[in-house]
Amino acid sequence: MNENKKIDERAALGQAPVSSLLVKLSIPATVAMAVNGLYNLVDTIFIGRGVGTDAIGGLALAFPAQMIVMAFGMSIGQGSASIVSRALGAGEDSRARRAAGNAFALALFLGLATFISGTLLLEPLLNLLGAREPLRDHATEYLKVILVGSPFIAMAMVSNNLLRAEGKARVSMTVMLIGAVTNIILDPLFIFVFKMGVAGAAWATVSGQFLAFVYASRFFLLRRSLIQVLPKHWIPKGSVLREIVVLGIPSFIRQSGQSIVSIMVNNLLGLYGGAIFISAYGVVNRLIMFLFMPLFGLIQGFQPIAGFNYGAGLFKRVLKTVKITLLYASIYTTAGFFILMLFPRSIAAVFSSDPDLLDTVAVVIRYVVAIFPLVGMQIVGGTYFMVVGKAVPSLVLNLARQFLLLIPLLLILPPVLGLQGLLLTFPLADALAAIITGVWFSLELKHLNREAG
């Protein structure tokens, strides 16, 4: 890469107008994340239309295990991206390259470990996920294939985070689009033409992630990146790995917490509502994930700007970035709230024509999104602390909803109130998490304001 171009990219993060820079970095990531979320929806739509309602339930049961694989990739990627963005801001390019190389090595190791352990312990894993007939066979088919692709899923997510950390939002968008478009093209081919069922959807996902990683790799290998990664950078260094893990733990806990919650909810839904509620929750989960993707795209635009300027000591720019991101996030989540609350059954009809499934989705979705307008603030707050290297508050805020609130509520309310109590846990946990995040984040912003002078 031309050295002048590298300097321009670095200077833009610290000098360009924050609002236009946030838009520039967020839009490609938002488009890519929206498409990325779309292929999760497409999986469910094709499975629902091509295999049936029980297959949607099998996919819902298997998905928490897939989320653990994604949690490894996301946590390593975000932890290393935090180091890289701050190192580039401080002019420490060698530290940035070492962090990137160690991140790839760690992702490969954990991906392989997941494949081996998951394959050997598949039956106990399915029992833990609550996989019972008539959904178990579908869950088994899907999960076997996803485990094979674990290394590529994790490393593709690391690649995306590192590209964004140095401001290459368009390249990151292309990487995600390759994975998503490949999946969308292969889904109907594998499911309808080759009659591969749920396994076809899984192979489409794995194929897309493999091609995405291959495309991203060339930027780190062919000197097209600020953080060119050489074989020597893959050699593990204890201090670098520790920092990646510590900074990535909040993200891993958030992602794995969602997986644990999904496992608990699926088991409880099977107990109090039956297979139809598991399938309905699978549809709602995919809808919520799709709705979150553009929000995560905004957050990915926020990360390199906040991290770079915090590392450079430009606290006024950090504060302005936070305020603008909060505004955009809140507008988006409020709009999403009204759409899902007003048209739940019509949206669910895209997945299936089964009237029982549509009615159940309409009930579940109104509980799940009841506090959605405040979710943007929660995500921005937790991400901010991670980006600036404050692992403890980031950890606590990411623990709050899943572990400190939702899981205890799942243990307390359903035995007392049954299905109604299970559904009430979602808005209660969101409301309490919003209060905790709001208080802590406001105190931090006051401190940041003082630092900015």
Automatic annotation (TrEMBL):
Keyword Protein biosynthesis part of the UniProt annotation: no
Matching CDD domains: MATE_MepA_like
Localization in the cell: Cell membrane
Record's bilayer topology term: Multi-pass membrane protein
Any Gene Ontology biological process: response to antibiotic
Residues passing through the membrane, by range: 21-39, 59-78, 99-122, 142-163, 175-194, 200-221, 260-281, 287-312, 324-344, 364-387, 399-417, 423-443
GO molecular function: antiporter activity; xenobiotic transmembrane transporter activity
Keyword tags: Antibiotic resistance, Cell membrane, Membrane, Transmembrane, Transmembrane helix, Transport
Superkingdom field: Bacteria
GO CC terms in record: plasma membrane
Family, per entry: Belongs to the multi antimicrobial extrusion (MATE) (TC 2.A.66.1) family. MepA subfamily.
UniProt-recorded name of the protein: Multidrug export protein MepA
Species this chain originates from: Spirochaeta isovalerica
